[in-house]
Amino acid sequence: KPSTFDSYQRNIHLHVLPALGGRSLVDIGPGQLNTLYVDLLEHGRRNGPGGLSPKTVHYIHTIVHKALADAFDAGLIPANAAARAKPPRPRSSAPTELRFWTPEQLRSFLDLVAGHRLEAAWHVSAMTGMRRGEVLGLRWADLDLDSSRIHVRQALVSVAYELIMSTPKNHLARVIDLDPGTVDQLRTHRERQLDERGEWGDDYQDGDLVVCKENGEPLHPQTYSQTFERMVVRFELPSIRLHGLRHTHATIALRAGVPPKVISERLGHESPAFTLKQYAHVIPGMQADAARKVAGIVGLQL
Predict the structure, then answer these.
(1) Which of 24, 34, 74, 245 would staple 125 via disulfide (CB 3.0–4.6 Å)?
(2) CB burial of residue 143 (10 Å; 0-12, 13-18, 19+)
(3) Nearest 5°: CA angle at 261, between 274 and 176?
(4) What pLDDT digit, counting tens, does each position of 142-189 carry?
């Protein structure tokens, strides 16, 4: 993916080439790599004093390992020095706390943004769990409103602030069913967008995008996120980021008893197991409900 390539390129140029860029490939051994890793841990930050985290250094090691593996396969070096290097092990850390809204808070937000130009976009984000780039990359050709379905085929991403159309995460397309309210939102949004197209005339840049600027140009992901966050502050709702709408959708679906496999398919996760791990905070409440139901069937419920 372009975003992954950009990450590899930035890490190589920032952290590897300054130390090893002048060396011949055959002169790079495990010792040189270990020295590099120690230096990055102690002095690797480029925007201030201090070092990089063990996780970041291990990530850089992974990039170097792959590059040297390619060099070995091409016959440029007799062995992959990174295979014998000793990168730091990433420290285990507490899972990141997920921020999400209750159904009542989500309802309040959707009511409060009624009439906003991005109302339909936020509605889609909340009611499908789609990623930001997937919403911004959605085309009208990907929508079947008569069948109430979205076909997620591409995503709009920012790489070094340049907008690029990419495939969805994991490179997998998927189909998401829509509720009637979201379908109505999209139909209304389509009418508004056609009015804007008429106002701009020949200057309208038609990319068939569902979510775009008034002149048809793609909407930058940062603009989409920042507009959402400003609305959250304005309405004095609990602070969440745009990605929190995705967490909100998944959490509400789990609590509603939707099977994890279905939620995993809607979110585009690699497996239901990943979905359950990601949203483990919901499980205790679900287990309590299950315990009550089992006791009730057995006849032990008071």
Answers:
(1) 245
(2) buried
(3) 105
(4) 999 999 999 999 999 998 778 999 998 877 899 999 999 999 999 999
| φ and ψ of 226, to 5 deg | -65, -35
pTM for the structure as a whole? 0.81
Work out the burial of residue 33: count CB atoms within 10 Å of its CB; fewer than 13 is exposed, 13-18 middle, 19 or more buried.
buried
Average pLDDT over residues 250-256: 92
Is pLDDT above 80 for 216? yes
Q: For residues 165 and 142, give the distance between their C-alpha atoms in angstroms, rounded to a whole number.
A: 14
Would you state the structure tokens that stand for residue 106, as one six-digit string?
């989500």
- The backbone region for 97, taken as left when phi is positive above 0, alpha when psi lies in -120 to 50, beta otherwise, is beta
Token representation of residue 5:
């390539």
Which residues 6+ apart lie within 8 Å of 25 measured at CB?
68, 71, 76, 77
Residues facing 29 on adjacent strands: none
